Amino acid sequence: MCRYWSDVVQRLVPYIPGEQPARADPIKLNTNENPYPPSPRVIAAVARELGQLGESLRRYPDPLARRLRETVAAHHGLKPEQIFAGNGSDEVLAHTFRALLKHEKPLRFPDITYSFYPTYALLYDVCYEAIPLADDFSIRLEDYLGDAGGVLLANPNAPTGRALSLADIEQIVTANPSSVVVIDEAYVDFGAQSALSLIDHYPNLLVVQTTSKARSLAGMRVGFAFGHVLLIEALNRVKDSFNSYPLDRLAQVAAQAAYEDDDHFLSNCQHVITSRERLRQALERQGFDVVPSAANFLFVRHASFHAEALAKRLKDRDIFVRHFKLPRIDRHLRITVGTDDECDALIAALREILD
Ligand SMILES: *Cc1c(COP(=O)(O)O)cnc(C)c1O
Predict the structure, then answer these.
(1) Are residues 268 and 300 in the same domain?
(2) Which residue among 94, 155, 191, 292 is the one 20 to 30 A from 208 at the CA level?
């Protein structure tokens, strides 16, 4: 506390990201990054933009990321005006809270979900209801069919990994015609159904995606929102009242190149999905309960071993997994699917610790 702080800052509860270890080569299974590098075309595009002398860097980037948005639009069969690009989907989500989710009636999201949501609600003074998930961590559809101030769902959900079907999402969107339904699809490419196909039909649906997970570009900070042109205009109004240039030149060309290499993207996703199933079976053999996952991580609980202690013992061996000290999930660990070698090292370490 400090008397110079504003009221808002005194009340904030900032989001705590997973640890980024200082050592160069830990086994890092705690922040859901992709274990594989981005497409070689990304490296080439960044090098081309940089050139010999970095000549382009003295100029501001395109404030609207037009070429990137055109590429992404063509990829999804949409119009560029239906796409907003921001500095990571975290920034896109923050603008969404400001632009579309602050109303008199409370915003609804699950009690167990991406822990940035309540943080944004506090920062932007958005009232919300955290709706309890069922005991198996599934979303109870009927909790989101009333008329709320807005609905925000991660699909697949984090940190559980569970996914809703497209039919369920359409039902929620239909049941909330007077408020915005936001679907955060950070992990959708690892096995869930995207709601992008619905945005032409529903003016109240906003889909948020990122290049951080399935496209291996967490370090570049590029995220998107997809929706009706008027929803996108709302986000642009907030952006242009905050920072006109959220995406730097290298981020724009890197993300564009990533969308131009579908083969790399698809084989990368398939690789992670195959490794996820292999890791799931190995963990189940070791006595873990594993929540069904459509994401690039597994949410697991050991029948007898304490989760926080387990995370600590793994960290002593330079293996990082995520433990949340939160009600209902403090006996669980969230484990990112790594390379097969990393998963094998995790399983070997767990075998030693559990014995
Ligand atoms: C990782 C993640 C994000 C943030 O992604 P960035 O684009 O890297 O900011 C958003 N939502 C969920 C549910 C995530 O897990």
Answers:
(1) yes
(2) 292
